[in-house]
Structure formats: C-alpha cells, structure tokens
Amino acid sequence: MHGWTGTIQYVNLSDGSCRREPLAPDLLHTYLGGRGLGVRLMREFHRLDPFSPEMPLIFATGPLCGTPAPTTARMTVVSRSPLTGTIFSSSAGGLFPWRMKAAGIDVLFVTGRSPAPVCLILNDAGAELVPADPLWGKTIPETAAALRDRGSVAAIGPAGENGVLFASIGQDTGGAFARGGLGAVMGDKRLKAVVADGSGTVEIADRDRFDRARQDVLRLFNASPVIFGELGFANFGTPALVDLIRQRRMSPTENFRSTVFAGAAGYGGPAIRNAYAPEGDGCHGCPVECRKRTPTGEPLPDYDAVSHFGGLNANADLATIVRCNALCGELGMDPVSTAATLSAWGEARGRFASADEMPSLLADIARRRGEGELLALGSQQAMGRLGRPEFSMSVKGLELPAYDPRGAYGLALAYCTSSRGGCHLQANPVSHEILRKPVATDRFTFSGKARIIKIAEDGNAAADSLVACGSAFFGATLEEYGELVSAATGREFPPCRLLEIGERIFMTERFYNCANGFTRKDDVLPERFFTDPGSSGEGIEIPHIDRERFEVELQKYYRIRGLSEEGTFADRLFLERQP
Amino acid sequence: MKDQIETYASKLVADRAADPTGIAFAVQDDQLYGTGEPYLADLARNILSRLTGLAVVVARPALPFAAFLMERAAAGERTIVPPDTETRTFLHDIPFLRVDEFRRDGTAAVARLLGARKGIIVEGVGIVAVGQLTVEQAYINYSSIYHATFVKYLHDLLTDGFRLPGEEAAVRDFVATYRPATAEGLVFRPGPLDDPEDIFAEMAAVGRYTVERRLVDSFFGNISCRTGNVVYISQTAASLDALAGCIDPVPMDNATTAGITASSELLAHRKIYEATGARTILHAHPRFAVIMSMQCEEEGCAVTDCWKECPKVRFLGGTPVVAGEIGAGGLARRVPPVIGGPGRAIVYGHGVFTLGETGFGEAFLAMAAVENWCREEYFRRLEQQFGRDRS
Q1: Strand pairing partners for B18?
Q2: CA spacing 20 to 30 A to B225: which of B35, B48, B95, B137?
Q3: CA quadruple A284, A288, A294, A296: dihedral, nearest 10
C-alpha cells in the first residue's frame, strides 16, 4: 500500500491484550488519517464519559507522515475531552509520529485501564506493555530520558497522572498534544508513555510527481512573509505575532478586560531573540522550525503561551513566562488553559498572580494541592465553583487563545463554531483577517464570514487528517497538499475532494457534540465581549461585538451547514449515512 | 457583496482584461445569486452551485491570446504551463477545456477542473476563476490567468511565429491600440520624504499610478520608501491602487515584528537599501519586461531552471537581468549587487525593480522606460524574425 501502512494497533490496557488488524482501504480513502480517521473510529464511543475505561485514546498518523512532504511528521490524538465534553483532536509534530508509523501502523487505538502504570512499546514486531511504576510521578523530560534507549517517546507528566483537566501529552522531541486534557485521559488509563521504535519506510506511488509538488510547497513557503519572511516564524518563531497583535489592539490583557498590554514588547519575538539567542527546535524534518529553544536546550514559548503568561496575567517578566512555559512542558499541562485559568482566578480574587507566585502555582496545579486542586478543573468549572462563571473566558469550557475576538469578527464566529470549543485553529481566520493570507478580509465585518469559516473548517479538517501543520497554510494551499497526497498514495485527492472529506469530518464531530447535548446555547462567547469595548486608540476603534449581528451570522452559518436554528441535526440518521 | 462585484467588474474593464460586454459573477453566502451578462451569469451560477467557494467570475478576455494558446496546443494537451515565475509559483498550471468537452459535460466539467485549480480557460467562453473566500480572490485569479496567458502567448510567438488564421491581425490590432507608459499628467512629491504622512500619501498615489499606467499585472507589486532607520513598505497581497492603511513601517534592525504582514519582498527591499543608499523602490510586473527577460540566446547552456538558477547577468537596453526566486529565494541576493548603477533591474520571468535617489518620480520614470524599451524591442524582434509572414 502506498502512503498508508493499512494497519491499526489495538491495545486493551484492562487485560493487556495487543493485536494488529488491517484497516479497510475505503476507510482510509474517505477519512485519510489523523483527525479524520480518529473521529471516524470514535463512532461507537462518542457518548462515553471521557474517564470511562472503554473510552478510546487514539493516536493517528496520516498518509504523508513518513514521507518528505513538508510539515507532515505529525499525528493527531483523538478522544473525548474531560475539560469540555466535546469530541477532541489535538495535533503535534515530532519524531514520535514518524517512528510509530515506521513501526507499521497508521493508528494506535488504546482502550481500558491498566491496574498499574505501564508503558507501551511499539516496534516492527508488534506491541508490548511494560511496567512503569518507577516512572509514575516523573516529569515528561525525566520519563523521556529514562526511555530514550527504547525509541521515541510520547508521555504524560504529573498533571496527566493526577487528572488535571487540561493535562497534555508531551514528546521527547517535537510539540505537545496540548489542548483539551487528553493527557488526563491517558493518565486515567495508567498509561505513562508510548515508545515507538519502527524502522519501516513509506512507499510513495509517484516519486516525480511528489517531488514536483514538494518543490511547489517550498516555493510558496519562500514566498510567504509569515513563514520565511524576515519577520516571520522561521526567524522569530510564532512570538513574531506579539508585536502585530498588539499593533492591531487585540492582545488579551488581564483576563480579556482590555486589549492592549503596555509591556508586550518585552516578550515579543525581538525581545526573545535578544534575551535568549534562540535556536530552531522544529518538528522532525520541518524546514520552518517555528518552535525555538535556548542554546542550552530550554524550550521557548510559542505565541499563545508567551501572551497568556504575559499580558493575560498582567505579567511583563519574560524570564517568568519562559519558566512557566517550560514547567507546563515538564509537568504536562496545556499552557493556554493553564495561563487562562490562572488569569480568571486572578480576576475573581482581585489580584493576578505575581511573577514569583506563578511557577509554584503551576506545580500546585499539576500535583493538585492547595489552590491547585481548584485550578486543575480549568477556568469554567473553577469559576463556577467560585460563583463567578463570567470570569471564565472560554467557549464550551475551552479557554480562548491569545486573540481577542473584538478585534476580528470571523474569529469571534470561529471560536463558537469550532467542534473543540474556544479554538481558533479549526477555521484559522487570523490567517486572512490579520495575516492577509491567502487574501485579506475586513476584520471588522461579519459579512461573508459564515461561509468563509465553513470552508476553512472543512479545509483544515482535511489538513489535520493528512496530517499537515496549520502554519504550512500561511503559504501553501490544499492544491499543493492535494498533489502531495495524490502522489504519495496513488489515488487522486484534488482540493474539492479534500474539502468534501473535511466537511464529513467536521460534521461528524458536530454530530457527536450534539449527541452529547451541545446546541446553539453553547455556541456563544463570554458575555464580556458583547458588552465591554476593547482598548481603542492609535486610530483603531475596538467596540464590543454587536450581539444581534453575531446571531445573524451564526444563523447563516447554520443554514450553510444544513443545521437547524438550534445548531442541531434535523437528520438523526446523519451518522448512519456516513461511510 | 454586490458592491464588491461592481468594484471588481469595473476593475476588469479598467485593466482591459475583460470584454466589458462579457463579464459575470456569481456569489454565495447562505444564498446563491449571479449577475452580469445573462448567459455567463447563468453559467457562473451553475458552476458555483457545484463548488464550495464564495465567488466565481466568468468573463471573455479582452484579447484572444488565451484562445490562441489553446488552439496552438497539441491535441492531447490539457493545461497551459506559464513560464513566468509569479504564475508558476501561485497557479502552477492553467487547465483548459475544449469546446467539444464543454458542450458534452457543461458545468460539471468546469466544476471538476475548478475543484483542483484556482481558474481555468473554457474554449468559446473565456476565463473562469473561483474565489474561495472573497470576490476579490476570484478577480485576482481571473486577472492572474489573463496576464499569464498574455505573457505566454507573446513569449511563444517570438519563438514559433504565427500559426493560426487571425493571429497576426489580432496582434496588429493590439499594437495599434497599445500606448507606451508615460508619466504625463502625474504629480510626484519631491523627495526625500521624511514625514510619515507624506510617505503614506505618496506611496498610495504612486501605487495607483503604476496600476493606472498599466505597469503591473492586475495590481500586484510592491513599493517602499526609506527614511532613517525605517522602511515603509506595502503589505503582502495589497492592491497597489488601494494602499491606504496597507503600508507597514519596518525598522531596518528588525526591532519589531509588527511588519510581519509586509510584502514578501521586504528582504529584497532592505538589501537594496543597504547596498545602494536609495530612498525609494518600486517593484512591478510590467508584461513586456517579463517576456523579454525570458528571451535568452545562449546555446548549449547546462542550466535548465533558468528563472532561479541562472548565475549570469544579462542586459536588456542597459538594464541588468538576473535570476532568483521570489520572497526568501535568491532574488534578494542577486538584485542588490546589480541595481545600484543603473537604478533598475529585471528579475528573470518576474518583474522590474527601480530606484529613486530622493522621491518616487525617478523610480516611476525608470519603470516606464524599462517597459517601453522592452515592448519596442519585442516587436522589433518579432518583425525581424517573422516579418515576411506578416507582409
């Protein structure tokens, strides 16, 4: 088989059984891999409680993983989020996805709950569970170091073990599966780590066509100011956005009470460059290397982390931001939800945590001790318990990233329609509303945004199933990635087909969420954005969002999606009609 | 969106990219509608109903060059591969649909091709382009295809000569109506420019001049002005005739990254400023300069990817021609060493950079002069090579 391995690895932690089975080719052709395949495989399980032993935790690569296609040494982890209750997929790049696929499997499907902590070893021969008691309680870097000789590692830290609802899954090299608390699902299963040590290779159906498409992608990366531009991600990492988002007056500040933080320049891309002389720390084989580290190997924060541990918490101290970000990586927590929960708590108690307090609070959250017991629940539940739910700046319980929706109306809509909750990545309107890619749109209008968001959601669902990095699409498009996957697999995937597949994936996610009770009432921004203006100035007006106009566009979105006015499915057999 | 349709329909006419009597748009939000020439509007609506995008434009090109390219193509060919780097980078190739296939499969065949590319050519109809996110995007894709086919046709003509009935007459008609670019009637602020408000206003005016005097394909290109440690540069994907609010101030030392939205040619502009001491830079894609830059007489050369790999400096009327990819490719390395003396340079298959030592007037005049020289030289060579055919 070209592109895919055509094999799924099942592991039941309750009884320790491991088996490999072939994947139906039709399933691969209609869901691709990554997010799509993971979501499809959740069909029989989507109503289960996230902490039910039967709940799957799915690690899925795509048909481009293992090939030289740019930014595709990635996988998606799929399950149901304990933080939001939504179906949840989290994508990251690294060597682990590459080596898991090299072990001969496209998908790892984990169910059950082990009676004692274990590690799962994957190699060419199959799968093996080994005791992990000595590793329980260790940080992710400590765990990775202990397992390094056995292969590439994906692991949880203390936060995942302790059920922190925004716990992440980290890797020895590469990014973390950060959002949605899938690390807590892994911890609940007593699965400390997965180690992959495959040696196989991926067969490419048409090498010449693949190489041409690859050159097309790289040429577009070169032509993209965001990717390889002088001020772009390759040079400054994603903190290159700090100065731009500040200039656009949409930096979340003091728990979204304002939209300009005076100290932002102190932690932007140039400030980090001056302070740390960063080096590239990119995902395996990625030419962009947007993630950076210090020369001594300490990871440096990405844009969302730097902004949220910065202005969102009224903190201008770069050293503290870098330390908090590193702690999240070590302890296994999503920096966005961690920082946003701290921020909500800061507003609720009338005082944001000081730079000195923040690192110890993070440790308390991961260990669930002191104030950390409450904060480990995430902002929505924590603020609910404090009787101040309005301070949770989240949608469906997922804390918003570092873009204030009062500064971009497509973004406001996208936060609400995302199947994950308050996430901008599924539609990525920042691309056209702020970064002018592929074309610029007016950020202060809702006009046309419903269809734009729908199209982008479908396209990104397909991209997340290839699995390609979202940053690649600041330069390339589905045209070029469609060529890559067609050349790799020997089957034709023009952009229109990828969009169809993406639509199927997104609507399946929406259906799962509706089956779990989500409706229009959940597709809503925190009240603050409809009542309080942002920080106007420098000739830029940041008013509050017009609720009526927002509702009109949301209804338009539902009509385009074929949903009811409540955002639900009139067709109860929708799922049964899907392949 | 109706306002946007009017805007971009007018632009197609102003660009002389479409026959004013043969333009139609279809758009869909939660509803689908089409407008323009009735047959084409109906066609546009039917096509868009099969696509997920937001807009489609269908129009008859003002010149028949795209149609000639299709007719000149061998029977089995299905795409036109543009030789210029801008189109090669963003469009890759341009599929076309022959009239018999269009009659047989109609909009389904058009939609199938548009499902894989940004725009196509349909024999007997014209250019069909899709805007995935905006009406403007449909216009851009139409315009890019129109200009790409213009460049390819005239480029091919210089090599292969006239082959079809009507070709020569069409080219003659075009020559008869073509006017050299001039700065007549244009007003330039004297430089050097230091006040940011003056810079913004002058850049917006000069950007508009380059479009109005047709020194760009559609509205692409970029423009900058240096004062002290700051380069004011047009944003990526900004329309040169609508630069108000689309100019980024970027410090030479990269002290802020707020200019991440600046033109993809920021690096080239910066390197040129460092190498030359110029105060203004104009970069556009005048069509005859692009065509002529791809005419190379060298025989037996081992370089095949001339547009990015050619190491030589050639000259067109005293203007140096160098190779180099756009953005972070080789263009920023190869242009600065050659542009200082003449104040102008051509990038192989791409476009022209010109400099002003003080203001923009000098840069604009240089741009017009390069394009006019290349146009005259093009037709001189065409006459020289195929003159007898035309008699």
Answers
A1: B61
A2: B137
A3: 30
Q: Is the pLDDT of residue B319 over 90?
A: yes
Residue in the structure block whose two tokens are 């060919």: B77
My answer on whether omega of the bond before A485 falls inside 30° of 0, hence cis, is no
Position B390 scores a pLDDT of 43
Tokens of A14: 């309750």
Q: Is the pLDDT of residue A294 over 90?
A: yes
Contact A243 B258 (CB under 8 A): yes
pLDDT at B218 over 80: no
- Which residue out of A451, A471, A491, A507 would a mutagenesis test of the B interface target, given it has the greatest number of B Cβ atoms within 10 Å? A451
pLDDT band at B3 (very low <50, low <70, confident <90, very high): confident
Which DSSP symbol is given to A402? S
State the amino acid at position B259 in one-letter form. G
The answer to whether residue A108 is domain-embedded is yes
CATH top class, domain B2-177: alpha beta
Q: Which residues of A touch B89 (CB under 8 A)?
A: 216, 219-220, 223
What is the rounded distance in angstroms from the CA atom of residue A412 to the CA atom of residue A342? 23
pLDDT tens for A78-135 read 999 999 999 999 999 999 999 999 999 999 999 999 999 999 999 999 999 999 999 9
Enumerate the residues of chain B whose CB falls inside 8 A of the CB of residue A561: none
Say which residues have a Cβ less than 8 Å from residue B122's Cβ, sequence separation at least 6: B96, B97, B99, B102, B110, B128
Cα–Cα dist A483/B183, whole Å: 45
**Strand, coil or helix: what is B253?**
coil
| % of residues, chain A, pLDDT over 90 | 100
Are the C-beta atoms of residues A164 and A181 closer than 8 Å to each other? yes
A165 within a domain of the structure (yes/no)? yes
Q: What share of chain A is helix, strand, coil (3-state, %, to 5)?
A: 45, 15, 40
Average pLDDT over residues A276-283: 95
- Interface pTM, i.e. ipTM: 0.94
Q: Note the pLDDT tens digit of each residue in B250-289.
A: 999 999 999 999 999 999 999 999 999 999 999 999 999 9
Q: Which residue has the higher pLDDT, A232 or B327?
A: A232
CA angle (B18 as vertex; B12, B22 as ends), nearest 5: 110
Q: Residues of chain A with pLDDT > 70: what percent?
A: 100
Residue A106 token pair: 């496209």
What is the helix (H) or strand (E) element at residue A193, kind and residue range?
strand A191-196
Domain-located, residue A47: yes
Domain of A23: which CATH number?
3.60.9.10
Entry field: residues in chain B: 391
Q: What pLDDT shows up at residue B391? A: 36
Higher pLDDT, A24 or B386: A24
Host domain of residue A119: 7-196
Evaluate if residue A459 carries a pLDDT over 90: yes
**CA nearest to A144, candidates A343, A299, A314, A358:** A299
Q: Residues 267 to 326 of A: which have CB under 8 A from any B CB?
A: 268-270
Q: In whole angstroms, give the CA distance from residue B57 to residue B315.
A: 39
Average pLDDT over residues B107-120: 95
CA distance A480 to B20: 34
Name the more confident of B238 and B2: B238
**Which residue among B92, B254, B266 places its CB closest to the CB of A216?**
B92
Helix (H) or strand (E) holding B274: helix B266-276
Contact B231, B269 (CB under 8 A): yes
Q: Give the residue from A159, A186, A182 showing the smallest Cα distance to A331.
A: A159
When the candidates are 3.40.50.300, 3.30.420.270, 3.40.225.10, 1.10.3720.10, the CATH number that belongs to B196-382 is 3.40.225.10
- Spatial CB neighbours of A190, under 8 Å, sequence gap ≥ 6: A13, A113, A114, A115, A116, A117, A118
Give the separation between CA A508 and CA A524, rounded to whole angstroms.
20
Amino acid at B107: T
